[in-house]
Write a structure and sequence with these properties.
single chain, about 110 residues, mainly alpha, de novo design (two linked rop proteins), 4 helices, about 80% helix
């Protein structure tokens, strides 16, 4: 599934980005970003394994929620100086694409029911 692969790639990007955060954030913002990023692909995978399309769409919605959580966390990271504006904008652009793809899949599943 393409959107799952994109979710995994995005999680890798978040891990790379958080490596540059201060060590004092290891159990704070870094971990929150990492957990939410992993949650995107994890919820897609778990939903795909469900027997009903309704369940799959529900897990995709949780995945989308994690993506929006990351959006907020990236804004906070930039506001407190952990990310420069250009880097933050680039990551948010990738995140927006992923959010749209997840939303398109939700719409497709909901309309096929």
């Amino acid at each position: 599934m393409t959107v799952w692969k994109e979710g995994v790639s995005f999680a890798r990007l978040i891990y790379q980005v958080t490596e540059s955060f201060p060590s004092s954030e290891r159990f704070g913002l870094s971990m929150q970003l990492q957990r939410a990023a992993v949650s995107i692909a994890s919820n897609i995978a778990e939903g795909a394994a469900r027997k009903s399309e309704t369940d799959f769409a529900r897990f995709l919605e949780m995945s989308l929620g994690s993506a929006f959580e990351i959006e907020t966390q990236l804004i906070v990271a930039q506001e407190i100086g952990y990310l420069d504006t250009t880097r933050q904008e680039n990551i948010l652009a990738e995140l927006t694409i992923l959010q749209k793809r997840i939303n398109q899949l939700i719409t497709k599943i909901r309309h096929s029911q």
